[in-house]
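Subject: mismatched residue count in predicted assembly?

I count 1020 residues in my input, but I want to confirm that the predicted structure covers every chain. Input:
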Amino acid sequence: MSGHYPRNAWYVASWSHELPVNRPFGIRILGNPVVIYRTDSGRLVALEDRCVHRLAPLSLGRCEGEKLRCQYHGLLYSPDGRVVEIPGQPEIPERAKVHAYPVVERHSWVWVWMGPAELADETLIPPAIGLDHPDWILGSGHIDYQAEARLVHENLLDFSHLPFLHTESFGPPPSFSTERPKLTALERGVRLERWLCDAQPVFKTDTNVDGWTDYDFLAPGVLLMWSGSFPVGSAAEWNYGKPDYSRSIRDASFTCQAVTPLTDKTSRYFFSWGPHATQGNAALRDVMMGIARKAFEEDRIMIEAQQGILDATPDPQVMPMTCDRAITIFSQVMRRLARA
Amino acid sequence: MSGHYPRNAWYVASWSHELPVNRPFGIRILGNPVVIYRTDSGRLVALEDRCVHRLAPLSLGRCEGEKLRCQYHGLLYSPDGRVVEIPGQPEIPERAKVHAYPVVERHSWVWVWMGPAELADETLIPPAIGLDHPDWILGSGHIDYQAEARLVHENLLDFSHLPFLHTESFGPPPSFSTERPKLTALERGVRLERWLCDAQPVFKTDTNVDGWTDYDFLAPGVLLMWSGSFPVGSAAEWNYGKPDYSRSIRDASFTCQAVTPLTDKTSRYFFSWGPHATQGNAALRDVMMGIARKAFEEDRIMIEAQQGILDATPDPQVMPMTCDRAITIFSQVMRRLARA
Amino acid sequence: MSGHYPRNAWYVASWSHELPVNRPFGIRILGNPVVIYRTDSGRLVALEDRCVHRLAPLSLGRCEGEKLRCQYHGLLYSPDGRVVEIPGQPEIPERAKVHAYPVVERHSWVWVWMGPAELADETLIPPAIGLDHPDWILGSGHIDYQAEARLVHENLLDFSHLPFLHTESFGPPPSFSTERPKLTALERGVRLERWLCDAQPVFKTDTNVDGWTDYDFLAPGVLLMWSGSFPVGSAAEWNYGKPDYSRSIRDASFTCQAVTPLTDKTSRYFFSWGPHATQGNAALRDVMMGIARKAFEEDRIMIEAQQGILDATPDPQVMPMTCDRAITIFSQVMRRLARA
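Triage response: the counts match. Full output below for your records.
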């Protein structure tokens, strides 16, 4: 795997509801085979998905209480990765152990720490918002990309593409591409904020609004975004800074997104979106998710084609533009974390 | 890409009718991503299909008058390859330019020059015959090969395979493989001429004929072929040389074919075929195209399987035979042009 | 191809009934393209599947009596691999010859010797039992694996996986994994023997039995296995050694299996199975084949997933266990034969 991605980070492996009890789930993260299972007691366990014996995937195995049994030759693994039973062989070698990945369930996501377990630090989990948060009515999903995660990151770090790629879905005003957001470098990412003044929101209305959007894009690839519409003039009133969301008159929404590198050229994209509970309902959420699905499909087609061009280019060079500044900041964060 | 193919040459990229106005068309030629579009004014433009910014394919873009806009972040390209607009960024870097390929529409084909633009020489376009030529009633099509273009060239340079591979389609007499055509080396290719005396033509008849076929196979992979049937004895009358086509009694036909290397192991094969206007009609043309489709499918199966064997052979060696002489001549032409 | 597989060995290329007269059959063995055909006289011929001229596959060719004609340019091959006719060319070069593989039909299988022809030794063909043997009522089939043959060998050399992987098909008692078989090293393989005492056979019954199984696994990947049920107490009576099969009271069955490496990561698995003629009939054979098909599908899913993990592992290491002893013995045999 490319050295672009830090190992000392929490990667989203799945939505919580994608992991029922006693059903082992296999995934690649940074190219590493990982099996995750939820035990009888509800505990999550994440192990290297590779039996020590002959490298069969444990994700084809069977949960037994807190343990996981390889269904090839029956080795039984405890949650710490140790083999605790070898059928027909009393002695268990010292080396009979797979890596146990720190795994945490939070904000409706299952997070896996890909670095050394002793460095796992739960305070580094991005402050996402789960599907059960009472303030928001959120839909969720995931799609797979035949493209490197970095290309999806870059897509999410530069919304100047919205008026071009998403005319048929989000359909934002052209100013989305002509006006640059305010950027703030964060310890583990970058914050983007912008007003779109005297414009139509995604859900067209009779009167224009001042639209606000702000999002944090955090290592290793998590987006947390808030949007809302305010009466025209509000931007000036707030001195073009962050408004008080409680005074949004409509369109208050939130989205959480995460991009996980599976292998060098594949990735999985997790997303939620929906209205604030005071400004929408499940029906609106479903309309929004329909729009999002269409937009993400537009992204997927473009990004996979971009990957195809990259693959056909012997020494690919990008040309920096002013819309790339958030990408540059985020890349520096990723490089710093990857070196650490 | 293999160095077998000259860059200083015109390659067929599509049939003219495959390129409607304002619909960008992406193709690989010699491994290079190329986008071609027809502007409002009818002009053809061929550009490197790779945005300078982040390498998105311009073939997913949108035509705007004479220009082409990348639909990822909105860079606008003029027909000379220069970026003339970057949304939200007044300054356009000097390097914001993709390669503009010389492109010419002629003989119903769109030709792209893959070498330096300043060397493009339209006199090097092979003298093909377009679908609108009044003398011929031509059908057309194209098929893609999962095989190197060179293998298709070799197929077309040696018709001794006809009595074996095409018994179910063209069904020529055995002498097609036992008698060698007359060969003439050309500046940019090779000419093949032959009489098949006192034999049945493709479209069987009561009386035998002397059949004549001659074709030029020209760099970088274009075939122009004329056939016709004459009364038995004509070959001798013409001293076994080229007859006067106007004295053909039946079966006068013409075919244009072009093989374009897409990548190292894929190629696109363009073809037309049909009767002379005085000896056939659209119905006969359709029958002929049906036969050709069947024959080209026989070719495709053999050549893709041949490619499979080549891929499984560590150090592939061919064994020259007398039927290969046209291949040898053409290979020398290609080598000479590729070195230039 | 990996050096794991000896060239001086007979590999199963097909079932006899898969090779009708005059229909050339193409296969890869150890990565080598091989064409096999059955002549008018019933003789089998196996040649390098690669025309000397331009490497077209002879398996797309046409049988002509005892000979095989390449259907690309018509070269005619005699059974010894020599080109005996080149259309339109009287002179045949000395080098116009492909490798002729020794090929033998025996025990309903077609065996190909992959080493130098002069070393071919028919006594090395494993003593399999053909589908026409009067003692057994055998079904047959084959399946292809997207996995290296070695992984299938290892599966067949260690039946401790049965109680885990095949609970839904063979459903053997747990002791299959907890008790190790008796092993005997053979000149070209390994013999495995075991009693399962006072247990239920695959076909459940009212009373327990002492079940016996013994099989030889022979280079380059052939399994010959006999099973039978005896009254409880028989194992002790036979001093836990090999019983007299004629005293089996039920479940007497035989299976022949062969695993042929096609390429580095693909293989073909041939198998027969069925009851002894005195203890079953065609209906029972069909039930058994249904169970086997289910079990082999369970194997295929696990082994192909194992191959996927291996491919994702930079430096794969296995951890030896006591159940691997037959694998170790067989690997030593294969290494010794591969060096020879």
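The longest helix of chain B spans residues 282-311. Marking this ticket as 'not a bug'.
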